[in-house]
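Dear colleague,

Following up on Tuesday's group meeting, I ran the structure prediction for the two-component complex that the binding team flagged. I've pasted the input sequences exactly as they went in, so you can double-check that nothing got truncated or mislabelled along the way. The structure tokens for the whole assembly follow below. Feel free to forward this to whoever is handling the docking comparison.

Inputs:
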Amino acid sequence: MAQKLARAGNFSKSCQAVCSDSTPSLGPHTHAKLQAKNPQGSEDFDKTFWPSAVDMNALRQEDDWRRVAEEHFSVDNIREYFARSPPLSVHDADSWRPREHVAFLFSEEDEEFHNLIRKHMVMPFIIGDFFPGHSEEVAGGKYFALVKPNANGAPIPHAGGASADADVRGIVISSTWRRCSASRAVDESSLAVADYLLGQYKNFQQFAGQKDGVIRCAQIVQLLLANHVNDDVSDPLVAVQLDASNAFCSVARQPQFDVLAGMASRPYDDGRVQVDDELPRPRTLDKYWGYFLSM
Amino acid sequence: MPGTDVAFKKLQPAYTEWNTARACQGWSHPAAPSSAPVNSDSPGPAAAPGSAPQLQSLGPAQGTSAASNNNIFSHCIIAEDNNSFHNWDAGLQFLSDKEISGKLCELRDFTFTSALPVGKGRTKFSSCMKKVLVLADIFQDSIRARDTLRHLARSLSTLLLSHGFKMIQTRCFHLLKGDLEWLWASCTKLGRARQTRLAANPHTGKARTNT
């Protein structure tokens, strides 16, 4: 397998095939553990401040959306995404591999066909153009579990306060087509969102999405630590590493929609934000409401 | 015009017989025209111009039979006898049945490994993809029908590539002929066989998980 991956040009995965000691979690309780990792949240959303279909249609008529659709979601950009996907990446729930099964669809000069792929396979994920009865399948993905080893490579014991599902690492493989649309959307909006966050919060530093972002982050942290002895003990400068546990499994959807809509439908921040208060958010995400709604 | 009425009366039995035969094949039609002249080449509405989209979407069905209520594609009627979707009626009925029964995504219950199409296999696969997307593009007025056909397009990798590269062209041929039921049944059979093997020895799943 490692040789096959290396010959195809996917060296990262080839290395992983040799070095990784991850094994599938196939225990009798794996299913229950995965369910515990993914608590079923309420879908009874407060939609008071949600944009209406009329609002979204009006947004789609704006020059900004037309420009974004033409430039960032063009056939050329979609073709480039699939052509640059790593070879022999894992296939999705419908058995698509982006490089092997999709990239060649753009090889012939059939503009009509390419536009149909863009219109019916990629853009529905951006604008949320799905039949409501199919939403559950559209939002889902292929989900499997690996055994999460501890530092010594042995499974994490269910002791010392560790949760029952601590030894399972759930991995979701979403639709190849959704990944393409998400990649293009991030490419379009990431700079604007970074500018917004950097301008909005004085103590915000972002390294994600930058070239050599990890190295830059490490250098900044080292500089801070080198100067640590000069800090005031009563108000020290500290580096905090946050790891959002199960970040994507337990995402709170109502706050997410409130932020995207720009209005609070419930109190937040210990009551400092009340219902009907305006929530700051980067406006560039307004056009991706349909994307978040169909997740 | 008296002449028109006479001509229509002469054509009415032929039209009724033709319509009944079409209904038996799963196609539904709007109610028979009352007094409008009937073109023997195109008994339904006028043929759509151009070559690719040769079905006409007429909006929500009006005056259709009870059977058509069980077909989410029922408001789409055939425009010409000789068109590229001529023998897709049974296939669309099959797809509609799957959608209505909530089994449209049942193939996702199984794990398949898609073959890598090369040469003519790629050309055929592209043709199949285009055919389904052209069909989806016709249903501008029905998100349910359009999304069902989009799902069919998303399932093509499973339907056409899961039986090895030697079978790609054969399976593409079946899809181009609208034989969705055969494609679906063979995938279900393959998926169940794999599932049985996997249940017998769960650790054989390791290789697939790591790739």
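Chain A has a mean pLDDT of 86.

Cheers,
M.
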